[in-house]
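Data availability (excerpt). The following record was deposited with the supplementary files.
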Amino acid sequence: MSKQNMSFQLGITFEDVEIKGVQIDLKNFLFLNARICKEIENLCRYNSYVNFAETLLNGIQIEGKIETVFNHKRFIAALKKFQLVHKSSWKGFFTYEDTKDNFIFKAPDFMQELA
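Predicted structure:
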């Protein structure tokens, strides 16, 4: 039986972003593909508040574990793009483990380290 999992302890704060509606479109907001969004959507928590009938988002946490893996290079590229667009930096790390590899990627540079 193959052992595949990823764990996440990531967070970022940024200047207020207005959110239309009650649902956050993770794919467009974090620049991710549909598969990655599906895997992490239940791990995401948002810092938001209402100001004059506008919902404003100013932080995201991705925390937890999944028992599968996805393209970590694509995920890192999206996290870095988010940092540039929102002029902020991720804090924390995520891990990647499959049958061959076991890595940790620490924010904000997400350089590959052996776990």
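Summary of structural features: The beta strands are 5-19, 44-51, 54-66, 91-97, 102-106, 111-114.
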